[in-house]
Amino acid sequence: MMIEPSGERRAPITPQLALRVAIFGAVAFGLFAIVFFRLWYLQVLSGDQYLAEANNNRFRELRIAAPRGDIVDRSGTVIVQNKLAIVVQLDPSKLPQEERELAAEWGQAIGRRAAKPKGRRGPPVPIPGIPTSDLRGRYERLGKVIKTSAVSIHRQVVRSLTLVPYSAVRVKTDVPRSVLAYVLERPEQFPGVTVEETYLREYPRGTLAAQMLGTVGEVSPDELKRSRFRGVKQGTIVGKEGLERAYDRYLRGRDGVQRVQVDAFGRPIPTDRLRDTRPVGGQRLRVSLDLDVSRAGQRLLGSTGKPGAFVAMNPENGEIIGMASSPSFDPTLLTKPITQQRYNLRFNENAGSPRVNRAVSGLYPTGSVFKPITALAALQSGAVTAGEPVSDPGCIDIGDRPFCNAGDIANGPVDMRKALSVSSDIYFYRMGQRLFPLPGQVLQSWARRLGVGRRSGIDLSGEQPGLIPDSAWRRRLNALERKCRPTNPGKRPCYVLDYRDYNLGDNVNLAVGQGDLQSNPLQMTIAYAALANGGRVVRPHLGLEIEDEQGRLVQRIKRSTARRVKMDEANRQVIMDGLRSAAQEPGGTSEPVFADWNHDELPVFGKTGTAERQPKADQSWYVAYVQTKDRPLVIAVTVEEGGFGAAAAAPIACRILAEYYEQKSTCAAGDSRTR
Amino acid sequence: MNERPASRLGAGLRLPFDPLLALAAIGLIIASLVTLHAATKTDVPGDPNYYVQRQGVFFALGVLLAIALSRIDYSRLRELKYGLYGLMLAGILLVAAFGGVTRGSRRAIQLPFFEVQASELGKVLLIAAIAAFAVDRARHLGDRDTTARLVLLAMIPSVFVMASDLGSGLVYIAVLLSVLFVAGVSWRHFAGLFGLAALSMALVIAAAPALGVTVLKPEQSERLTSFLYPSDDPGDAGYQQNQSRIAIGAGQKTGRQEQATQATLNFLPEERTDFIFAVVGERWGFAGAAFVLSLYALLVWRGLRILTMAKNLYGALIAGGIVAMILFQVFINVGMNVGIMPITGIPLPLLSYGGSSVIATLLAIGLLQSIYAQGRVAAATKGRGLSF
């Protein structure tokens, strides 16, 4: 066989085949081109992003919780401190879609139910069962370890997702360390479960000052956008209400970071090169409260069995020495997850709304404790002079309506001093009558100047501005009524019975602290302090100093300067004299209460008040000022449905003062039956 | 100038071979060994070369078989078409009946030291067999009848393979289409076939589940669509895509070398097999990945060239089937690694770890070499070449 050297000639192929081969080649080329370009995109164009992701895969940053600063009272006694706890949490993003959808639907269902009017809501919406058997298995595994049922975990998850969808679900607080180790060693068995050491707030003083302290919680996505939380990382615990919130910037520490190298299952790999960042603890907050005073007040208020509040403030600088609101509650209840049911049981209206700080959020008519304000307005505007006698026959007619003292008691002719001492309603009705035609709504203007009807800016949550009724307010209300009444069933009144303007009768009522006036103990304290200190309206505050863990001063909290209200000294003296007489001279409405008080060293200037608050029983009020050089004090006490001012509020004020000044005084209830 | 060859072997060895094809194959072999070493050196404690050694054995065996195959005349396989077809079918059915289940599907028969994936070898067997059947009908290639028979022949094994391994099953279809295409089947038939294929895919993925009939196993259909929704959960199908993309992207231009930890830290699942390309991408960056792709392109180009110079139709058909097999697998596997293709369990020829795939691919290359040799000789001798 002849073998010729092979040449480059190939067997000829048909044109159709050539075409098909060409197409084949083109397809192959196209496929390669696609892949090449995609590769180029991934590696050359977007490579940085993926490099970062690859590194992210490898390193996990674990948060080392920083302890929050303590809150201590003015002598250093701890009110709020930390407790180390091990908590088990579930990451909501690692929960299956079905669970999150279930929570969303349930949330909407209870929202719809809550929107219905009370009484027509129907039965409570139950939480549906665990949606997938896979999830049930997960919950059961976890539940076995933390000794909770799977269903209970599921319910907690759903509730938490509804309320705070962004936050990790705290499934159990306070688990033993062995649980921590067990779960950490088996991350693939417990996907989405984190067990970490964290700090919980602890309240060694129990229910004392509970409403003032506030709560802490995980920072929300909305809060992160605000400038006050700049630099705060997601997942940080921040103050949500009260003092915790007001001074969060100081109390909040800086969480540390533990960098761990992990594999794809999240299992930590021991490496030595990684540097941790140590956590920095928060700073301590010293508040102006004197715990003994607050405790005395809270106990006394509690023993009345009725809701009430008190405020004790230094009139020179606005430091709040004592504050309490009754009923109170144990703040520890709010450090752990709580069901809606239990929350309602403990905290809703039927339980007395214990979370409401009645000292600053109360909206009460003040009764006669308002009279010194009326007095100042009358004296300053010239509606009356200090010595001018006004006839008090027990009852008078203003317009066509009778206005009477309590019990129709006649006091005879009284001047300003006497009127304050015996709390003559008639005198002040006359003042209201005289002030009404004066231009500029004199009474309201003075009240507002002294701090009534406006927020003081105290560093607590929930402060209410209250209300001073005047003609502008009445007009607004009438307009609202016009809009609202036609839509009301039966065309019944919404807010007011008629469309009248603010009239003389309203002013007369306001002059004695009745009518539509709404105020609270703090406002009364501020007003009386201004009268006591000569016209300075101080800004009340609890925060005093910021200290480090050793108690060394870091920063004194700056206060804004007090607002000055110009008042004639002579007028002020007359009013103070009237108050002194009320507490110290026979015939004064609170004299019997302070019968054995050491007035020489600690003179008391006080005013009783008994506010009508229909349909409820009368509310008892007492506001007093104790004049000493070093430790002056203004105190305001109110007891809902407490009856006459001298009967309930005054003895409580007396006892609190006795505690503060370390006096032994009987502080018997007075029998004065005045308003 | 007639010479008796000194020995058959000597003459055989003197048969021409395509050096570029061989180069491409050798390049891929080296790339495979190097990459496997890098990716798996921490997998088996105490034995960093476990997988490299095993792959080396497979390569050695495969290369020997390839060389042997390249020295014989492939046309003789035509006579064995029934045997080849039967062998393929037997292997596939055996696996379906007795195969061990790995990753949720039956693919291989477990033998003491290794597993035999019948579907891999079956691809080469199918090419040889179906090309032969097509050549038998050389005069009737335009007929619908021919097309129908060939389709049926290929679908039978394909269906069995698809039941457990969707990806490989699709390779069978790719081979079938390529053979039909090269054979000169009419365009209308193709249109009809494509329409049928598209319809059945749509049916399988979308319509059937809606009617409550599950044709694809849940993990199969999830894998097909997960590339649209990659996810974070290591158990999820999309996670693999994500991690692969991250690995490749992180490699950037020239790779992360020792810092390429995605594979060693278990972030890349299946880094020996399905996602070996991602390892290349992470370690050696765009340069490395492009180089490997170029080797495959070289392989495909040489294959097409061999197709055009085949001495007979049989050779052309076999070459077409082989090129399709390689091209399809490369595109699907690399596409999956870079996130533009759904997840299927197709190995990357020669690069992925796995004896059956390696040997099958090397046999295919051996066949190509044979077609080349015979083609060159025939061209030189005008129709008759040295054959055994």
Question: What brief labels describe this structure?
Answer:
heterodimer, A: 675 residues, alpha+beta, Penicillin-binding protein 2a (Domain 2), Beta-lactamase, 3 domains, seven-stranded mixed sheet, five-stranded antiparallel sheet, 22 helices, 23 strands, 36% helix, 18% strand, elongated, disordered N terminus, B: 388 residues, mainly alpha, three-stranded antiparallel sheet, globular, disordered C terminus
Query: Count of DSSP E strands of chain B?
Result: 3
CATH superfamily of the largest domain in chain A: DD-peptidase/beta-lactamase superfamily
Output the helix-strand order of chain B: HHHHEEEHHHHHHHHHH
Class based on secondary structure composition and strand pairing of chain A: alpha+beta
| Count, helices of chain B | 14
Largest sheet of chain B: 3 strands, antiparallel
As residue ranges, the low-confidence spans of chain B are: 1-7, 212-216, 228-237, 263-267, 383-388
Report the largest inter-chain contact: A-B, 48 and 63 residues
Tally of strands of chain A: 23
What is the distance, rounded to the nearest whole angstrom, between the alpha carbons of the first and last residues of chain B? 21 Å
CA-atom Rg of chain A in angstroms: 35 Å
Oligomer: heterodimer
The CATH class of the largest domain in chain A is identified as Alpha Beta
Structure overview:
Chain A is 36% helix and 18% strand. Chain A is of the alpha+beta class and 675 residues long. In chain A, the strands form seven sheets. In chain A, strands 2, 3, 4, 5, 10, 18 and 19 form a seven-stranded mixed sheet that branches. Chain A starts with 14 loop residues before the first helix and ends in a 14-residue tail after the last helix. Chain B has 14 helices and three strands. Chain B has a three-stranded antiparallel sheet with strand order 1-2-3. Chains A and B meet through helix 1 and helix 2 of A and helix 7, helix 10, helix 12, helix 13 and helix 14 of B.
